[in-house]
Amino acid sequence: MDFMDSGNGLKVFNDALELRSEERTQFIDLTGWVSQSLSRAEVGHGLAQIQVMHTTAAIIVNENEPLLLEDFKAMFERLAPGDGGYAHDDLRRRCVNLVPGERANGHAHARALILGGSRMVNVREGRLDLGRWQSIFLVELDGPRDRKVSLTVLGFGRSAA
């Protein structure tokens, strides 16, 4: 966790979260962690940038409703099927970024490309400015895996806001 005050009221705060996903495709609600970090950032008004540090996971803002999350998993399978025959998975042809024991995960890269690796959320009066049903998720697309999420909060301090 890093904290910087520019002297003119502008603050920059960085935090990171390391976790392990438990499922092949999983929605992990990060809203509580981001809110706690934001509290430590002491920013009244600004922006919170949440970024996953991996290419087979994503960050989204959506509703935390179990049936909707199941619908999303089914949508992923339609858009980028797990058995879609991706060139990335052909280890006889691929010659870069290879690691021992690598598993086929072209589908996870395609899904992450569609969803995106980061989101920016407004900060208002020291809190995330989310809608009634909105939550911030890490979307695991190739689990179980160890994951790292980075947070940067930029804004004006509570007393300066």
Fold and architecture overview:
The chain is of the alpha+beta class and 161 residues long. It has a single domain (2-84, 104-157), classed as Jelly Rolls, CATH 2.60.120. The chain contains 3 helices and 9 strands. The protein has helices at 31-41, 66-79, 106-115, and strands spanning 2-5, 10-20, 26-29, 43-52, 57-63, 118-124, 127-128, 134-140, 146-157. The strands form 2 sheets. A 6-stranded antiparallel beta sheet has the order 1-2-9-4-6-7, with helices on one face. Strands 3-8-5 form a 3-stranded antiparallel beta sheet. Strand 6 and strand 7 (127-128) form a beta hairpin. It is elongated and about 60 Å long.
Short description:
The model has no long low-confidence stretch (mean pLDDT 94). The protein is α+β, with helices and mostly antiparallel strands. It has helices at 31-41, 66-79, 106-115, and strands at 2-5, 10-20, 26-29, 43-52, 57-63, 118-124, 127-128, 134-140, 146-157.
Which helices and strands, and how do they pair?
Elements: E1 2-5, E2 10-20, E3 26-29, H1 31-41, E4 43-52, E5 57-63, H2 66-79, H3 106-115, E6 118-124, E7 127-128, E8 134-140, E9 146-157
Antiparallel strand pairs: 1-2, 2-9, 3-8, 4-6, 4-9, 5-8, 6-7
* Computed Rg: 18 Å
CATH level-4 homologous superfamily: YjbQ-like
- Which fold name is given in CATH as the topology? Jelly Rolls
Kindly state the percentage of residues in helix: 10-25%
User: How far apart lie the N and C ends?
Assistant: 23 Å
Biggest sheet statistics: 6 strands, antiparallel
Low-confidence segments, given as residue ranges, are: none
Can you count the beta strands? 9
Beta strand %: 35-45%
Query: Structural class, from secondary structure content?
Result: alpha+beta
Order of helices and strands: EEEHEEHHEEEE
Q: Tell me, what is the CATH class?
A: Mainly Beta
Q: Could you say how many structural domains there are in total?
A: 1
